[in-house]
């Protein structure tokens, strides 16, 4: 099995991530999180919020509605241009994202495919229809009448929910420039070919910051935020520096409004691919909103009184891609006592459970009662404590290793004598005796 298959299999076996709507045969591009997956995902999102919002004075949170006034997407350019090139094989009628069939840009044509000798991945023929631009926004209708006037979209990015609240924030709390607004939430894209586990989904979670700056200060703020993104990835998510790479996106591949974009890529089992991006978006979005809404998006500097539309630096993270990177870095197979074991070396702040408490034997009521009291004690201090009295102790360790629990605490007969417990470390498998009071 490939490393990705191993990770997918572990995620399913241990209740991290399931195919969406699996009971009905699935729903392509959607994923459901089980108890451990939710815990891991929430820990990642929590770490991000702490890092970028709670621990700073200049970034504030917002939480906007998923369904927005459709004028949002006209102003942002999504209605006209948020599309991927779609091509149909005339022989088997399979549909593909044309730029992914080879080394092409999004402007790829049928002639390009033919000249490059690209064959259909399904039927291996070279008989392509015209390449069409396929808009990736999910349309829906709001209210009881389903016609053009009620058409709306599920947001394809969280960013516009931030931009449309910029004026509310300036009018209410009036933060000094530079300041940022951060949001976490679902985004929806009708991807032509969702694939690679949770890497490319149709429904996923984004965490975005729009950081508003004076136009002449964009470069230093870009560098500062970029460094801060690295700090988060390496020190809060524990991703190895050697697996993280910067791609300075060349002008011809950047969105037309962006003067600079750095994609941060990660060495996934599927190869080096985009983990997140940071883009300098100029005043593109606020100027568009000003035009479409007729309202001023200008900011008046408190120190100089200068008035202008702020420019924006946008760090944009996808939670599923972070989660897949965390799993990739953590997934390890090593050998313990001559047997192969699977272990998720998750950082302690991300692991679904910090501790697992067990009685050595589950048919000894005095051990179970003592173990319960230790469990209750830890549960008061930490949220992430689990109880396991299934199978034998070796099996419990293997299971906790697989789900990434850093410490297993075992209550045995000595505990009843001297109030010490065995603490077994996930990574080294070493066991130490610790007083309960010192846990
Ligand atoms: P890609 O080139 O891989 O399609 P993108 O450049 O379109 O991604 P952005 O529009 O910059 O992505 O979105 C910001 C972030 O949202 C990405 O860096 C990624 O982490 C996440 N993201 C985008 N599309 C998806 C998706 N289909 N599934 C999961 N995460 C996604």
How would you explain this protein's 3D organization?
The chain is of the alpha+beta class and about 450 residues long. It has two domains: about 240 residues, BirA Bifunctional Protein, domain 2 (2-Layer Sandwich), CATH 3.30.930; about 90 residues, Anticodon-binding domain (Rossmann fold), CATH 3.40.50. It contains 13 helices and 23 strands. A hairpin with a 2-residue loop joins strand 17 and strand 18. Helix 2 packs across helix 10. Adenosine-5'-triphosphate binds next to strand 10, strand 13, strand 16 and helix 10.
Structure class = alpha+beta
What's the number of helices? 13
Oligomer state of the chains in this structure: single chain
Bound chemical compounds: adenosine-5'-triphosphate
| SS elements, strand count | 23
Classify the helix fraction into a percent range.
25-40%
* Structural domain count: 2
CATH superfamily of the largest domain: Bira Bifunctional Protein, Domain 2
Biggest pleated-sheet summary: 7 strands, mixed
Strand numbers in spatial order across the main sheet: 3-9-10-16-13-12-11
Descriptive tags:
BirA Bifunctional Protein, domain 2, 13 helices, Rossmann fold, 7-stranded mixed beta sheet, 30% helix, alpha+beta, 23 strands
């Amino acid at each position: 099995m490939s490393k990705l298959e191993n990770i997918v299999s572990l995620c399913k076996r241990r209740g991290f991530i399931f195919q969406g709507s699996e009971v009905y045969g699935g729903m392509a591009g959607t994923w459901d999180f089980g108890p451990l997956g939710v815990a891991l995902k929430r820990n990642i999102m929590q770490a991000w919020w702490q890092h970028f919002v709670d621990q700073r004075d200049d970034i504030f949170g917002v939480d906007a509605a998923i369904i927005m006034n459709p004028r949002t997407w006209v102003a942002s350019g999504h209605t006209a241009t948020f599309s991927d090139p779609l091509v149909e094989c005339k022989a088997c009628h399979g549909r593909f994202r044309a730029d992914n069939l080879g080394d092409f840009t999004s402007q790829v044509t049928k002639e390009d495919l033919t000249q490059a000798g690209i064959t259909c991945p399904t039927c291996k023929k070279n008989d392509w229809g015209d390449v069409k631009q396929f808009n990736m926004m999910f349309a829906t209708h709001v209210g009881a009448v389903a016609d053009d006037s009620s058409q709306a979209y599920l947001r394809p990015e969280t960013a516009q929910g931030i931009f449309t609240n910029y004026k509310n924030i300036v009018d209410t709390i009036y933060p000094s420039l530079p300041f940022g607004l951060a949001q976490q939430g679902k985004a929806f894209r009708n991807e032509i070919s969702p694939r690679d586990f949770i890497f490319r989904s149709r429904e996923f979670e984004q965490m975005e910051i729009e950081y508003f700056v004076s136009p002449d200060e964009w470069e230093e703020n870009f560098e500062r935020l970029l460094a801060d993104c690295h700090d988060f990835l390496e020190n809060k998510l524990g991703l190895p520096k050697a697996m993280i790479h910067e791609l300075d996106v060349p002008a011809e591949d950047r969105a037309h409004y962006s003067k600079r974009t750095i994609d941060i890529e990660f060495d996934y089992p599927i190869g080096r691919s985009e983990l997140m991006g940071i883009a300098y978006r100029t005043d593109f979005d606020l100027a568009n909103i000003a035009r479409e809404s007729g309202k001023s998006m200008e900011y008046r500097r408190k120190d100089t009184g200068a008035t202008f539309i702020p420019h924006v630096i946008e760090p944009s993270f996808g939670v599923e891609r972070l989660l897949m990177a965390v799993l990739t870095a953590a997934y390890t197979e090593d050998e313990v006592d001559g047997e192969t074991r699977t272990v998720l070396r998750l950082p302690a702040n991300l692991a679904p459970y910090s501790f697992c408490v067990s009685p050595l034997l589950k048919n000894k009521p005095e051990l179970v009662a003592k173990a319960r009291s230790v469990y209750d004690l830890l549960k008061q201090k930490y949220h992430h404590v689990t109880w396991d009295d299934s199978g034998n102790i070796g099996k419990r360790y293997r299971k906790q290793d697989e789900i990434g629990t850093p410490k297993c605490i075992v209550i045995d007969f000595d505990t009843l004598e001297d109030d010490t417990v065995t603490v077994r470390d996930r990574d080294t498998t070493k066991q130490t005796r610790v007083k309960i009071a010192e846990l």
